[in-house]
Please model this.
Amino acid sequence: MTGTAERGPPDFDSIVDAARLLHGVAAVTPLLRSDALDARLGASVWIKAECLQRTGSFKFRGAWTNVSRLPEKRRNRGVVAYSSGNHAQAVAAAARLHDIPATIAMPLDAPAIKRARTESWGAAVRPFDRNVEDRIGIATALAEELGCPIVPPYDHPDTIAGQGTVGLEIASQCRALGIVPDAVVVPCGGGGLIAGVSTALKTAMPGVPIHPCEPAAGDDTKRSLEAGRRIALAGPIRSVCDSLLADTPGELTFEINRRTLAPGIAVADADALYAMRIAFDDLKLVLEPGGAAGLAALVSGEMPCRGRTIVAVASGGNVDADLFSRALNGPGTL
Amino acid sequence: MTGTAERGPPDFDSIVDAARLLHGVAAVTPLLRSDALDARLGASVWIKAECLQRTGSFKFRGAWTNVSRLPEKRRNRGVVAYSSGNHAQAVAAAARLHDIPATIAMPLDAPAIKRARTESWGAAVRPFDRNVEDRIGIATALAEELGCPIVPPYDHPDTIAGQGTVGLEIASQCRALGIVPDAVVVPCGGGGLIAGVSTALKTAMPGVPIHPCEPAAGDDTKRSLEAGRRIALAGPIRSVCDSLLADTPGELTFEINRRTLAPGIAVADADALYAMRIAFDDLKLVLEPGGAAGLAALVSGEMPCRGRTIVAVASGGNVDADLFSRALNGPGTL
Model:
């Protein structure tokens, strides 16, 4: 019912078309560097700051693309989504900007800022316990009841095409700066962002290895890449990286990612928090734990980077003040 | 001896030349917006994110311009500066990148991150007690002893020209976005940033009022603008805005600012901290208290903005984790 499987992976042109849809609506986020970070790592690191995207994460790109491509007749009663928070805000924003209602199933333990922001866009939030209830089942029931399509968080060609615009921007920004990265690291939950980014870069900046970065407790994409097939972890996954808690790769995303990605990297929760502290000190950016997973792969040493040029996607910055303070009060970085 | 007074204010061409010197060395910082911030204020607010500048504040622009314009013979033994921290890092970076030594007089109570970062650029730091010692006297003695020129933090045409490139970028970014702001608000210490910005905008975006924002305890520019002459406050100034503690406007900066500026705005320390919290929640930016003074003028209501389009310069993000946590633990904003 979500129109996923029948269409197959988006191609490069679909991502270019998404960029056109997003022009003037989404931000072109900056590619940032820091002398302090480079000195710390002995590397040349470029941060694609998607925390500065509208709604505070890359998710707006996919949600906007998906909603915009729904035939008006299908979307005029509104849209439904399920999300731990970043996709929720993104769909809420995309719906509001299209002047249609949104109903979002969100886990009870979603960060307060994510729920508050979703509601502030005018969306109706339907909370659920992610330890006992099935989010897709809830969303499907809501969609049927309301007569609305679901905007899938990652496993959909239009969602993936929207996220892929991050890759287009990385390629053109690297070109403008005269950089050819040795690798790109991307936070990975269900795999939509990295599926889009890798599809874009395969054409726009070919030959650069692209690594998914996941919390160690939820390394389903890493394991699936190793096995050559989708591996489902025994859930529920527990990690501070609330935006990366997928227990299995998406069908469509994995169909893409198995062909496009370099090996996965697992990061400890402590390293995600440490990367948040480093982003605070060196980059003056607020990152959420999942958004810092790419940087965490570098600062933890899990992804060797000395002497190399790396692009790290910082995928989101929606984090509660309490957790951010916890990251700041961890080991100092000066 | 610093070559200040004899040359007079920099003109527009000097700022354009500074932009040429800074090209490929400094960042072109983004002009950011946030739906949440706009909804909160009922305004259209654009943040010029100088916290994302090299060394974490706008100061790098002026320091680089100043050092670059020193004749090689004058600078080859190095440079001297005095600064509470942002200019210190900026001069240390500019000197290191020119491969010359830097010696910086810094107050003992400067934030730890500012001192650590200044030293990490290889500069020698000479700490002093700003309550009893005179920073200019110390710097002058150091300069004589070492045979090096001083790089003044604000009261120098080349420093001002460098800071003015912030204004050039604001004008071109507004043009690209199709925005004509109703006002620009700029944090103000000695007045170098706003002198440069207002000189640039007078030509590049004429007719837009430009307001200096100062801590209430150090509102020397506000009072001086009202009096039409430089007013010296009884020091030392105490405010959480460590980067804005000037007790009197610069000679050259005030010569400019008295002709270019709209009335000054004084912000309470609590509002600067609250603005830091809002930058965290709405913009995903790390601001230091002084860097948040422009935003504080808006969120406090001191600068009415409802229904208006405002550009706020966020001038720096060098803040210690302890103080940032204090800002986060203040009144929530959700």
Notes: Chain A touches chain B through 36 residues (CB under 8 Å). The longest strand of chain A covers residues 44-49.
